[in-house]
Design goal:
The protein is α+β, with helices and mostly antiparallel strands. It has helices spanning 15-21, 32-40, 96-101, 109-112, 123-132; strands at residues 3-8, 24-25, 46-51, 57-70, 80-95, 118-121. Strands 2-5-4-3-1-6 form a six-stranded mixed sheet.
């Protein structure tokens, strides 16, 4: 199983709205690297849900329930979506400042590729963030 991180501006689509919806497709990705990450996601993979621009924190865990398919919001065949469902909220959100301050996370894609909206998370990074979020 792989681990990922997706970003969403809470004013556009928040964790609470995601929980209310119970499931969603992740659309609007228009970056080739992020798109390739969506294509690499497999059913059952776990995903951190990160509030970008406001909050700047990982707030919850989601799961991939359907692998990549054509983005229904565009006819351009270059773009795909995946379906996700919320699994659980972190007991304690893990802020970007906390991540940047932890030497164990110095290579995390969230920091190194800060503009990327869909990025991979290593198993070690996943465990550290769960520890920081008091979920482990």
């Amino acid at each position: 199983m792989a681990h990922w991180l997706i970003k969403s501006e809470p004013t556009k689509y928040s964790w609470d709205k995601f929980v209310e919806d119970k499931q969603t497709f992740w659309d609007g990705v228009r970056n080739y690297t992020a798109r390739n990450n969506l294509k690499a996601m497999k059913k059952g993979d776990e995903v951190f849900f990160y509030h970008s621009n406001e909050g700047l924190e990982i707030v919850g865990i989601a799961k991939i329930v359907k692998e990549s398919y054509q983005d229904p919001t565009t006819e351009d065949p270059n773009w795909v979506v995946v379906d996700l469902k919320p699994v659980k909220k972190l007991k304690k959100p893990v802020t970007l400042a906390t991540i940047k301050a932890d030497i164990r996370l110095e290579k995390i894609a969230l920091v190194k590729l800060s503009r990327l909206s869909v990025c991979p998370i290593t198993d070690d990074e996943w465990s550290i963030i769960l520890e920081l979020g008091e979920t482990k």
